[in-house]
Amino acid sequence: MFSKLQFSKAALTALAGVSVLALAACSGAAAPAESTSAAGSATDAITVYNAQHESLTQAWVDEFTKETGIKVTVRNGDDLELSNQIIAEGAKSPADVFLTENSPAMTQVENAGLFADISAKVQEQVPAEYRPSTNKWAGIAARSTVFAYDTTKLKADQLPKSLMDLADPAWKGRWAASPSGADFQAIVSAMLELEGEDATLSWLKSMKENFKAYKGNSTAMKAVNAGEVEGAVIYHYYWFGDQNKTGENSKNVAMHYFKNEDPGAFVSISGGGVLASSQHQDNASKFLEYVTGKAGQTILQTGTSFEYPVGSGVAANEKLTPLADLQAPKIDPAKLNSAKVTELMTQAGLL
Amino acid sequence: MTSEHSTTADGAPGATISPSAAGGRGSRLGPRPVVVLCLLIAAFSLLPLGFVVVATANAGWDTVVKLVFRPRVGELLFNTLSLVLVTVPLCVVLGIGGAWLVERTRLAGHKAWAVLLAAPLAIPAFVNSYAWVSAIPSLGGIFGGVLISVLSYFPLVYIPVAAVLSRLDPALEQSAASLGLGPWRVFYRVVLPQLRLAAAGGALLVALHLLAEYGAFAMIAFDTFTTAIYDQYRSTFNGAAANMLASVLVLFCLLLLVAESKSRGSARYARVGAGVQSNPTRLALGMWQLPGQLALVALTVLAFGVPLWHVGRWLLAGGSEIWVRDDLLTALLQTLGYGLAGAALTTVLAFPLAYLVVRHPGPFSKVLEAVNYISSSMPGIVVALALVTITVHNVPAIYQTSVVLVAAYALLFMPRALVNLRAGLAQVPRELDEAAQALGKPPLIAFLRVTLRLSAPAAAGGAALVFLGIVNELTATLLLAPNGTRTLATAFWSLSSEIDYMGAAPYALLMIVLSAPMTYLLFVQSKKAAGQ
Fold it and tell me: What residue ranges are annotated as transmembrane (chain B) (predicted)?
C-alpha cells in the first residue's frame, strides 16, 4: 500500500504539471489573437481569411511581413465556406481581408454589403476587366478551366469539343471532377450564366450519371494519370505544379483548352477584398495593394503556383499559354450566382 | 471483485461496471455540489444532440423532406451501411481470432505478437489511407473504405477481447471438455459466449469510428455521411443541407447504441464460488503453427508495415527539404498544447460523473451515464457544426477561441476518461475515506487525500487516451480552431490534399511517434485491468 501511495503522489504531481503546461501552451496559442484586438499602431496585425492555395498566400504573407513589419494571421478554408462564415459573423467578423480562388464567393460577400471599397492604388494596379464595376473587390490572380486527359487513351480528335459534350452518354464513366470544391462550382456558375438554369441542371444530372467524383482537383488529375478515368475537368495549374515537382502524378496527362468562348473555356478570377468591419483598414488595404502590386504579382510569375497574374502589368510564367490566347467567354464576375449553383448541384445529387 | 467490462480499448461507451461493489446507498443522489456539477456537464454534453433537433425543427417539414428524402442521401446511406456491415464483422473475426491465437494457443512468440497486434492503433486512419493511396493510387470505393477501416480499427476489438480471454476461468472449458466436447466446440460453445460483452463493446466502437471518420475516406474518395456533411460545410459554412445530413447521421448513431445494448443480452458472466481460478490453458497448434504465424505476419505487414514503409519512402524522397523546422515545431507545440489542455479538462470534468456513478449508484447516476453514452457517440463533425453555429450566433465572446475547441475535445473524448476513472474509483475502498473522516478530516480533505490520490493512476491512464484522441483529431479542429492554428493533423491534411505527399510525411511521422507510447500504455492498462 505504501508504494502505491507513493506512486499515486507522483502521478498526481505529473497531472498537475501537465495542466499547468497545457494552460501555458493555450495562452501562448491565444496570444496572436489578443494582439489583433489592440487598436492603433501601423504595425497592427491583420487576419486574412484565405481560400487561395495555402502555399501561395503564405508566400505573399511572408514577403509582406518582411517588407512592412505587419504581422498576418491566416485562417484557411474554402471559398464558399469562408464567405458564408463571414456573412454569419457579420459585423463582428475577425477577418480583415478575404482572398478567394474564384469570384462567386466575393460576389456573395459583396451582395451582403460587407466589403469596403478598394483603395485607389488597387484600382490603378488591377485593370477594369479583372474587377467588378462596384470596386468592392479586385482580381488577384486568374486560372483557366481545362480538360486534363490521359494521353495513352485519348487522341486529339477524340477530345470533347465543348464542356457541354461531357453530358453525352458516350462519356459515361470516362471523366472525373471534384464537385465539392469551389473551383468546379465556379465553372458551373459560368455555365449557369452562359447557358441558363434549365440547360445547367440537365447537364448536372447527366454529369451525375457520367462522372466519377474525387475530393480535390489534384486527386482528380492523379486519377487520370493512374488510368482510372480518361479525363478530368480541373484548372490548368495543377498540371504545371506537379510537373514542377516530381511529375509523378501527371506524366501521362496533357491539357486540352476548350477555347471558342465555350463554358469550358471559363477563366476564373481569384478575388481579394477588405472587410468593412475591419478595425485595421489601413493595414488591410496595404496587404491588398501588396498582393496586386508588382511584388505580389511577380510571385505568381516566378513562384510555383502557376496561376496567371492579373495586375501591375506582370506577365505570366512563360511556360503557360498566354491568357489572351485562351478565347475565354466574356462573363461579368458580379453575375456568378453561387447559391443557385449549390442548390442545383444538391438537386442533381452531386452534393 | 473486478468489474466485468471496464477494460474496453477506447473508453467504450458500452462499458458497464457493477457499481454495487462500492456498496452505495442508492437513496441519496450524492453531495449537492457534485450533483449540480454533473447536471451542468450533462446539459453541456447534450448540446450537439439538442442542436440537431432544433435545427431540424427550425428547418420545417418541407425543407426536411426536400433535403433528406433524395437519391443522394440514399447513396450515402447505402455506402455508410455497407461500410459498417462489412467492416464490423471483419474486425470482430480478426480481433477475436488474433486474441485467441495470442492468448490461448502455444503460438511461438505470443508475447511479442500480443503487442504487435495492438500496434496499428498508433497509426491514425488518415495516415493509413495516405500510405495505401501511395501504394495503390486507384484505391477507392467500398473496397478501399473497408480495407483502410479494417486495418485501422480491428485492434479496437482485439484489445478488449484479449484482455477477457486472458482471465477466463478455465474450469468451465474443462467441464465442457470432460463432458465430451472437442476443442473447437468448446471454443464455440463455451469461450465465444463469454467474449460477447467485450466483442460487442469493441464492435460498437469500430462502428462509431466508421461513422465519424472523415480524412481516411475523403482521401480515397469514398463518400459517407460525414464526408458529405463536410462537403456541404465547405460550400455553405452551416447550411440547412449539412444540418439535415447531420440529423440522419445522429439517428444512425442512436440506432447503433440500441443495437449494441440489445446484443449484450442478460446472461451472467461472472465467476461465482470459492477459491482462485487457475491460469488458462494453451492449446497446442501443431501443424497450424505455421499458418497461424503467416496469418499474423500478413495482418501486421498490411496494417503496420505498409503505412510505416510509405511514410518512410516519402521521407527519404523528400530529403532534408521537407523538415521545415519552424512549421513543424509550431504544429508540434500547438498539438501538444491542445492535447494536454484537452486531456486535463476532460479528466477534471469526468471526475464528478465517475464519483456519482461509483459512490451513489441509482436511477439518477444511471441517467447521467446514459446521457454521456449518447453524447459520446456524436461524430466530431456534428459536435463541431453545433458549436460553431451556437457560438457564432449566441456566444460571440468565445467564438473562434481555443476555449471552444478544448470544450469540443472534452465532449468527444469524455468516455475515454470516464471509463478509466470509474474503474479506478471503484477499486478505492470507501472505508478508507470514512476512516480519514473518522480521524477528524473534513469530507473534502478526506476525499482529496485518500480517494483522489488512489485513483490518480487511473486518471492518468484516461488522460493519456484523451491525449491520443486529440493528437489525431481532424474535423472538429478544422472547424473550430482559432485563426492561425496549425496542428499536426491539420497540417498533414492540408499538405496531403494538395498531393504534396513528401511535405506531409514528417507530420505523419510525428503523429505516429506521439501515438505510439499512448497505444502501448492502453495495451498495458487493458492487461492490468484484467488482473495480470
Answer: 34-56, 76-101, 113-133, 139-165, 197-220, 240-259, 294-316, 336-358, 370-391, 397-414, 458-481, 501-523
* Residue A101 is assigned to a ligand binding site: yes
Q: Do B231 and A29 touch (CB under 8 A)?
A: no
Q: Has A257 been labeled as part of a binding site? A: no
A256 has binding-site annotation? no
Q: List domains and CATH numbers for chain A.
A: 46-142+268-321 (3.40.190.10), 143-266+339-347 (3.40.190.10)
Q: CB B72 to CB A350 under 8 A? A: yes
Given this model, what pLDDT does residue B269 score?
A: 65
Judge whether B149 lies within some domain: yes
State which amino acid sits at residue A312.
S
Instruction: Please report the ipTM that was assigned to this predicted complex.
Output: 0.78
Q: For position B114, what pLDDT does the model report?
A: 93
Query: Which position has the higher pLDDT, B175 or A253?
Result: A253
State the DSSP H helix or E strand holding residue B15, giving kind and residue range, or none if neither: none
Closest residue to B336, CB basis, from A25, A225, A350: A25
3-state secondary structure A151-170: CCCCCHHHCCCCHHHHHCHH
Which residues of chain A neighbour B498 with C-beta distances below 8 Å? 53-55, 216, 218
Of A12, A77, A216, the CB nearest to B453: A12
pLDDT for B369 equals 76
What is the reported pLDDT for A9?
Answer: 47
Which of A29, A181, A246 has its CB closest to that of B485? A29
- Contact B221/A at CB under 8 A: yes
B482 has a chain A CB within 8 A of its CB:
yes
- Among A3, A6, A18, A75, the residue to mutate for chain B (most B Cβ within 10 A): A18
Chain position carrying cell 480528335? A157
Q: Is residue B345 part of a domain?
A: yes
pTM (predicted TM-score): 0.84
pLDDT number for residue B23: 39
Please answer yes or no on whether A222 and B137 come within 8 Å at the CB atom: yes
Q: B390-413: per-residue pLDDT in tens? A: 999 899 999 999 999 999 999 999
Distance of CA A95 to the CA centre of its chain: 17
Q: Which pLDDT score, from 0 to 100, does residue A42 have? A: 58
**Total structural domains within chain B:** 1
Query: For the residues B30-54, what does the mean pLDDT come to?
Result: 89
Taking CB atoms and an 8 Å limit, are A29 and B457 in contact across chains?
Answer: no
* Assigned domain for B510 exists: yes
**Residues B512 and B311: beta-carbon distance below 8 Å:** yes
pLDDT tens for A297-316 read: 999 999 989 999 999 999 99
- The reply to whether A130 sits in an annotated binding site is no
For B346, nearest residue in chain A (alpha carbons): A19
| List of long-range contacts for B295-302, beta carbons under 8 Å, 24+ apart | B295/B97, B295/B101, B296/B98, B296/B101, B296/B107, B296/B113, B296/B116, B296/B117, B299/B94, B299/B98, B299/B117, B299/B154, B300/B116, B300/B117, B300/B119, B300/B120, B302/B151
Tell whether the torsion through CA atoms of B294, B154, B79 and A84 is positive or negative: negative
Q: B457 vs chain A: nearest CA distance in angstroms? A: 6
Q: Are B21 and B1 in contact (CB under 8 A)?
A: yes
Domain with B66, as residue range(s), is: 19-266+285-529
- Per the domain annotation, does B358 fall within a domain? yes
Beta bridge partner(s), residue B78: none
Residue A253 bridge partners (DSSP): A150
Tell me which of A300-304, B170-174, B272-276, B333-337 is least confident: B272-276
Give residue-wise pLDDT tens across range B93-118. 999 999 999 998 999 999 999 999 99
Which B residues, 56 through 115, put their C-beta within 8 Å of a C-beta on chain A? Answer: 67, 70-72, 75
Q: For residue A188, which of A161, A166, A159, A173 has the smallest C-alpha distance? A: A166
